[in-house]
């Protein structure tokens, strides 16, 4: 069921006025010791503040701050530890930041604390289903939510889009019962999470089918191992920029509204070209020779 409450303007449209007019870039700020790509680099407040400034100066429209790695095989951390990592960073960067902050968590208590500290969106890799109370927390704060598809186990025999649509219907029911407006919900197919390699590619290929639900889409493929499998040599996450750009430009051409990335500046440049072709009304006056 598509959104039907687009007026008055939603909080999501207020926070992201360019949404739907151009492809927005979410900059990743991991303050974890074990993130697959940049673990440990931005743990301290000073390092995180400097990276937040770098990401926004490079053109990020949103800053996504996370305190628990969700890479395959990660070790879950208690909420208190997660909050000890993210809250000082949010409190340090939010007052001077020109873009909204999303808190990357599936824990209701962390979302609550982060929203009080200055975050304004909730990015849940379990689609509000691991801790459903997170939906109430978001609703109480008027915070938009990013709902990601995920699975506990990989089953390569599934029609992954059919599974995704069923998952999203459950998530949307949780969100609506908590009082979150449809216009404050973004869907994420969860590339890199709970799927076989072929299913990751299938999810990207069939983004238009997810788009028919009527919600903005976020896609995050940045530096992920599925890109490494396409190389003819071993690659570190930092070596996967070109594949990340290709995947995100493809996603944007198939309906993604937001891409979640480590390398902001090159994505801004690449997506400017995409938007000039695919969303010309939103890019008028933004291209400089």
Q: What order do the helices and strands come in, and which of them pair?
A:
Layout: H1 11-15, E1 24-30, H2 45-57, E2 62-66, H3 79-93, E3 101-104, H4 108-117, E4 121-124, H5 133-141, E5 145-148, H6 160-178, E6 185-188, H7 197-205, H8 207-211, E7 218-219, H9 225-228, H10 241-253, E8 258-261, H11 264-278, H12 280-283
Parallel strand pairs: 1-2, 1-8, 2-3, 3-4, 4-5, 5-6, 7-8
Helix pairs in contact: 2-3, 3-4, 4-5, 10-11
Provide an overview of this structure.
With 289 residues, the protein is an alpha/beta fold. The protein is 42% helix and 12% strand. It has helices at residues 11-15, 45-57, 79-93, 108-117, 133-141, 160-178, 197-205, 207-211, 225-228, 241-253, 264-278, 280-283, and strands at residues 24-30, 62-66, 101-104, 121-124, 145-148, 185-188, 218-219, 258-261. The protein has an 8-stranded parallel β-sheet. Helix 3 links the parallel strand 2 (62-66) and strand 3 (101-104). Helix 2 packs across helix 3 and helix 10 runs parallel beside helix 11 (264-278). The protein is globular and about 45 Å long. The N and C termini lie far apart (43 Å).
């Amino acid at each position: 069921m598509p959104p039907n409450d687009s007026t008055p303007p939603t909080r999501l449209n207020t926070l992201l006025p360019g949404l739907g007019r151009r492809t927005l870039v979410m900059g990743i700020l991991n303050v974890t010791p074990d993130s697959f790509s940049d673990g440990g680099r931005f743990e301290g407040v000073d390092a995180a503040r400097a990276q937040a400034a770098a990401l926004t100066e490079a053109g990020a429209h949103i800053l996504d701050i996370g305190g628990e790695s969700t890479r395959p095989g990660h070790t879950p951390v208690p909420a208190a530890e997660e909050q000890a990592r993210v809250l000082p960073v949010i409190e340090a960067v939010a007052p001077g930041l020109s873009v909204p902050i999303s808190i990357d968590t599936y824990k209701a208590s962390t979302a609550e604390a982060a929203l009080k500290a200055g975050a304004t969106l909730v990015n849940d890799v379990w689609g509000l289903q691991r801790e459903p109370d997170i939906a109430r927390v978001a609703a109480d704060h008027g915070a938009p939510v990013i709902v990601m598809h995920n699975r506990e186990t990989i089953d390569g025999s599934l029609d992954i889009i059919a599974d995704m649509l069923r998952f999203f219907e459950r998530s949307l029911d949780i969100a609506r019962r908590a009082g979150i407006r449809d216009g404050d919900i973004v869907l994420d197919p969860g590339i890199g999470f709970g799927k076989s390699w072929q299913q990751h590619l299938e999810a990207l290929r069939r983004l238009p089918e997810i788009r028919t639900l009527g919600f903005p889409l976020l896609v995050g493929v940045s530096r992920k191992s599925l890109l490494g499998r396409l190389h003819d040599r071993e690659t570190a996450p930092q070596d996967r920029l070109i594949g990340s750009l290709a995947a995100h430009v493809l996603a944007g051409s198939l309906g993604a509204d937001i891409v979640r990335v480590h390398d902001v500046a090159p994505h801004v440049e690449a997506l400017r070209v995409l938007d000039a072709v695919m969303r010309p009304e939103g890019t008028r006056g933004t291209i400089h020779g």
